[in-house]
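Per your request, structure below.
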């Protein structure tokens, strides 16, 4: 069984598509059918909820490790854990920004923040 359909597309795209099909020795119908089959059979990459939860858990573990390192060298009146919690919120916001087109990975950014805190203790 076959279904007949009409597809509207810009003239320029149609001419290019028809030329590509001709170069391949196919009709437009054959070429488009092949493209659609290939596209449908290709798995769509998607992150599952479990993948995201694992990523968040890894992120939180790394931040906890950073908090422990900062606590070990912290100098100042502010509680290191409170400071790390504040940094964590900043990192979450930065991470969203990075996902929207930023250049620095969240791990690199967290490491840079730790290095800054390590070299610039509170009160300096």
């Amino acid at each position: 069984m076959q279904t007949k359909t009409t597809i509207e597309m810009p003239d320029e795209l149609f001419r290019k598509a028809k030329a590509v099909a001709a170069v391949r020795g196919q009709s437009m119908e054959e070429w488009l059918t092949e493209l659609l089959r290939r596209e449908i059979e290709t798995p769509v990459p998607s992150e599952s909820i479990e993948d995201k939860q694992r990523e968040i858990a890894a992120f939180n573990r790394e931040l906890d490790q950073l908090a422990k390192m900062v606590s070990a060298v912290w100098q100042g009146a502010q509680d290191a854990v409170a400071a790390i919690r504040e940094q964590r919120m900043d990192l979450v916001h930065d991470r969203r920004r990075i996902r929207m087109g930023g250049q620095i990975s969240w791990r690199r950014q967290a490491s840079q923040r730790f290095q800054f805190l390590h070299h610039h203790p509170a009160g300096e």
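The chain has two domains: 11-41, 49-119.

Regards,
D.
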